[in-house]
Design a protein that fits this description.
The protein has 323 residues and is of the alpha/beta class. The protein is built from 11 helices and 10 strands.
Length: 323
């Protein structure tokens, strides 16, 4: 594993972190989930990314992670960097959603219980909800650090103006933002243009999620929508309408470049995000140990030639591809 310092801090994170957004809930095979968590740790992935609503059902990813931590990894807690977040809908009622102090504090307490932890290494505000003042949300994160429930704090998906305000409040309280989390892929360059440099200028590390554009950058959809794919499901984060002819054709062209590099399409897509030197770590989601190993093999070929960059940028510069 390769490790990189996180912003202006002494914390190192692996280039690849394991996200438990999908495939670790109570609808999934616990044995497979356990195998993936243990294999990740054995391969040097020491950062595990959670959120209170990960599952399904909401909370079950944290509960399952807590079971594995207790049964297999409790002796290694100090070798692990564990994160969670709050801000999206978690439970019914007016207090189970959003970025209020009440929701942030209650959610962190619940998440700690589900994971069986005394503290999180980092706790995030999962989103700017458009209603709660940034000051209130940041004060809640500061409170978590003061209470010893989190060592560090972070923000996720904040628009640039709210992002800067969050940094200012946290810096003034001497609880600087360790990590800023944003969606980023070849088909989703928005955060690179709008948020990355703001983070760097404020000493925050950057961690990215959805680098494979929900599977569009794996070659899975090159010949139609497979029956067991995310786009085939009635609900989910990738809709059939998003599997456009333009994106499918672009993925085919990118796949040809990946083949020349001796990589899978997915490996090249991961390497492309990591090629931005502002990125600290990249969150991968896996459904099996074999898929995780395929992702880990990315680390053996992270370098792009100028010609490869030009060819790739010529393909992905089309705004019709962007989410």
């Amino acid at each position: 594993m390769i490790y990189k310092y996180c912003g202006n801090s002494g914390v190192q994170l692996p280039l690849l972190s394991l996200g438990l957004w999908h495939n670790f809930g109570d609808v999934d095979d616990f044995g497979v989930a356990r195998d993936m968590i243990l294999h990740a740790f054995d391969q040097g992935i020491c950062h595990f990314d959670l959120a209170n609503n990960y599952g399904p059902s909401p909370g079950s990813a944290e509960s399952n992670f807590g079971k594995v931590l207790k049964s297999d990894l409790s002796a290694h807690r100090d070798e692990m960097f564990i994160s969670s977040k709050a801000g999206h809908e978690m439970w019914p009622g007016v207090y189970g959603d959003g970025s209020s102090r009440k929701n942030i504090i209650a959610s962190c307490d619940q998440s700690l219980r589900r994971c069986g932890l005394d503290y999180f290494d980092i706790f995030y505000s999962h989103r700017y909800d458009g209603v709660t003042p940034v000051e209130e949300t940041m004060e809640a994160l500061i409170q978590l650090v003061r209470q010893g429930k989190a060592l560090y704090v972070g923000i996720s998906k904040y628009p640039a103006d709210k992002q800067q305000r969050a940094y200012d409040i946290l810096r003034e309280a001497k609880v600087p933002c360790l990590l800023s989390q944003y969606r980023c892929s070849m088909f989703d360059p928005k955060a690179q243009r709008e948020n990355f440099q703001v983070a760097v200028d404020n000493g925050s590390g950057i961690i990215c999620f959805s680098p494979l554009a929900q599977g569009l950058l794996t070659g899975k959809y090159d010949n139609g929508i497979p029956a067991n794919s995310r786009a085939a499901k009635a609900s989910g984060f990738l809709q059939q309408s998003q599997v456009t002819p333009e994106r499918v054709e672009a993925a085919r062209q990118l796949g040809a470049i990946a083949k020349e590099r001796g990589q899978s399409m997915a490996q090249m897509a991961l390497a492309w995000v990591l090629d931005d030197q502002r990125v600290t770590s990249l969150i991968i989601g896996t459904s099996s140990v074999a898929q995780m190993d395929n992702n880990l093999a990315t680390l053996s070929n992270l370098t792009f030639s100028d010609d490869e960059r030009q060819r790739i940028n010529a393909i992905i510069s089309n705004p019709q591809l962007w989410f």
